[in-house]
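Hi everyone, sorry if this is the wrong subforum. Our group has a chain we'd like a structural model of before ordering constructs, and none of us has done structure prediction before. Sequence below.
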Amino acid sequence: MGSLSLLAQTNNQNVASKIPYSQLPSDINNNNNVVKSSAAYDFNFVDRSSIRRSNAVIKVGVSKYDLQTNGSVARRVILHSDGTVSMAWTTSFQDNFSDRGTGYKYITTANGQWFNATPLVTARVESVRTGWPCIGVLANGNEFTLGHIAEEGGWARAENTGKGTAFTQTNASVNDDGIYKPIWGRMANVGDNVYLIASYTDSSAVGEARFKTVQGIQAPMTYSKSNDGGKTWPISHVLLPGYDSTRYTTGGGDQYSIDARDSFVVICVTDLLEDLAIWKSSDYGVTFTKTIVDSFNYAPYSAKKLMLDTPITHDGTTSVVIDKNGYVHLAWALGRVLDTDTTDASYSFFPGTAGIAYWNEQTNTTQLIATSIDMDVDNTGAYEFMRGNTANLESGSLPSGLNHVARIGNTSIMTMPSIGLDNAGGVYVSFSAVVENDFDEIWGLNLRDAFIVYSSDNGANWAKPLNASQLTQKEVAFPSIAKDVNDYVHFQFQVDIIPGTNLQNNATVASNHPIQNNDICYMALPVSQIIAASIDQGAVKVEDIAQSKVFVVSQNSPNPFTGSTEVTIYLSNPSPLNVTITNVAGQIVKSFATSELNSGNHKVEIDASSLQAGVYLYTMSASNGETVTKKMVVN
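Answer:
Right subforum, don't worry. Here is the predicted structure as tokens:
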């Protein structure tokens, strides 16, 4: 099927101003998407002094290796059924990155603190140099990681003995034939069924093979499957049906996404000059059916094809998830390309294009859910950012007229979506984008933040995107969210003080982006804030938050239980809590009060050891008069 032209409509007061998918602005120099020269721009820094951070950003680790992906962001956050969280990332503590590997953090309550994140992660989980980690939970409850071994190709596998325990490296897995080097993996699993997609690295070193070509595709994406938790791989490095030179010419690292739920597996592939397509399996990854979600009019692209209409394409970043009914939800970032000359192999890419698109398999509809219109925070009618935010290094030298560049790979100005779902039809898409009028003080380039856009009705209607991270004078990049959402959207992202990355944007002659520690951060963003639109950057002041009644009380866990149980709460303002337990007859059987709790996230323990088995109600009241009551069952 081709590109769909749909206009979303909603009754939500926080509705975004949407435009049809096929009517994205034709280039980067128009009223909806303006790139300004740093020499001509008068810096007006965003004044965030009046903005109250209403949800805590927690530092869990550091990494001097600051490139977490070349394209699509991996699914690196897991929300467990008990409300705890595990996450992984690429870490390194040496300037030469010789100790690069998987950073891992299990986050839970400790010492009365919400999601205690200390101590910081200071070592990788493997004994060899790896990168691009994937994380999953096996049927026995152990966690495992796969990190690629770039020098040799293939993966190092590590496994622990349960959530939060130490890992042991077990074996290098999924190597190809010993000649070619598969890396850049994306993994999903359901128990011991593990599904892996990857591509091939390229080397021009003497004696080493270049990338592999299969079915006419250079460095294609391959698919592998394990039935024993990633120890052996009976299906190894095969190409999916319909993935061939009739529509594709090249693969590439990180231009794909994968998810699995129950017997379903879905894989998405996209790139600048390709169709956006999914392959879906309903038999545990044995057979797949291909669907073209958004076709590229010039596929398969070659240098002999003119593209004079600046067609809409995809910037190579995507995220896919399967809902509880087995339907696919897909998000991707947009771009535009142009080719006016068939005498060479070059073409033009417009990274200033701004748009995040979404597709729902159940309704077979495509929408633009975030555009440049939504990012116009100063209401001038234009999404304005510096030219250096869209420029790349050329032969290791800065482009003429620029002292810094900050573009992350070949991605667009709005990029790297990540999808999560709740159990009530809520769809959440995070993405990375530069912030208008928020510049770093050294180089004068726009800084990035992590944004989120939300639908309450299974993707039919969408609210306006919100700035989720809001970190003053910080570059927030590579946001990834857990695919499961409870009362919170569970975020991971990387934080830097210089826009861009050292590995992609440092010019040796200028040393404009030196190697330094980058913070790996976690945030539990309350869904209530997203619904209330109370986190919007530049719009939330102290008095607004004070007047906003945001008091979240989760279902107790475990439930049913014996002895004691815990309740997760979120406070928008400091307050003590009064807790009352009543039986089904309405009689108070227990009550207590906490000391004053700071704004943010906490866990409150309910000791029910003195209560008889049965059904009870717990009521929590904050000092502003808000009261929440929920049911619990004592065994």
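For your construct planning: The mean pLDDT is 84. The longest strand covers residues 427-439.
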